[in-house]
Design goal:
Low-confidence stretches of chain B: none
CATH topology of chain A: Helix Hairpins
Distance between the termini of chain B: 67 Å
CATH architecture of chain A: Orthogonal Bundle
Largest interface: A-B, 70 and 88 residues
Order of helices and strands of chain B: HHHHHHHH
CATH architecture of chain B: Up-down Bundle
CATH topology of chain B: Four Helix Bundle (Hemerythrin (Met), subunit A)
Largest sheet of chain A: none
Number of strands of chain B: 0
CATH class of chain B: Mainly Alpha
Number of domains of chain B: 1
Number of domains of chain A: 1
Number of strands of chain A: 0
Shape of chain B: globular
Structural class of chain B: mainly alpha
Mean pLDDT of chain B: 83
Order of helices and strands of chain A: HHH
CATH class of chain A: Mainly Alpha
Radius of gyration of chain A: 17 Å
CATH superfamily of chain B: NADH-ubiquinone/plastoquinone oxidoreductase chain 6, subunit NuoJ
Number of helices of chain A: 3
Mean pLDDT of chain A: 87
Oligomer: heterodimer
Helix content of chain B: over 70%
Helix content of chain A: over 70%
Amino acid sequence: MVPTNYYVILSAVLFGLGVFAFIFKRNVITIFMSIELMLNAVNLAFVAFSQALGKLDGQVFVLFVIVVAAAEAAVGLGIIILIARNRQTLNVERVDLLKL
Amino acid sequence: MTAPLVVFFGLAALAVIGAVSLILQKHPIHSALSLIVVMVALAGLYLLMGAEFVAAVQIIVYGGAIMVLFVFVIMLLNAGVEEHTSLSKMAGPPGLLLVLALAGFIAATVARSGASVQAATQTGALSSTKGISEMVFKDFVYPFELTSFLVLVAILGATVLAHREKS
């Protein structure tokens, strides 16, 4: 069988890649997708520990995380549509109304 | 190497390649398709861990509903190739450093706690779907009901946000 360590390290790698995409990408939709990638990485760690401890709490938590992610995606994409409509751009560097 | 390890490394490689591709692709639609690859690979890993219900939900909700919503919005807004200014190119090296520090910290923590985590591995097969349904509808019934309110509020919020007012 696969040791739990491997899953946790894979989860850390995926989370790191998500953080990097969040910092590096400039399209607001891609930034939103990197948040989903980070949520997925956390889900992997939850399921791995759930399996390691022999309890199902982790898997139930994953279900709740998925529900929250779905709600977040619906509201977030609504906000992105508003940004695109009001500022005619998806580049986050051009959404700088609060900048001096 | 045993068969589960081979499957694990195959799916893990697929997930990491998909995540790297999400970063390297210039067009958002290509990034979205890369993210779908990551999600399907993770669903395979959940199956490997015996969490078949979570794997099914991952495919249906994440790979299906959420990513379709993303692709739909990309098409709706006609998102083009992203442009990188000099400021955003500057974000690369510090970001990479930060990510390496984070991943190194997590890997070090895992390596230190490795013995205790590995000792707890494989404590018998779980009857996954039945157990999950019993937990959701008994122990977690109030949080479960609260999530339905959350989804309702999200529906209302998305409708109000995307609604165009007649002037």
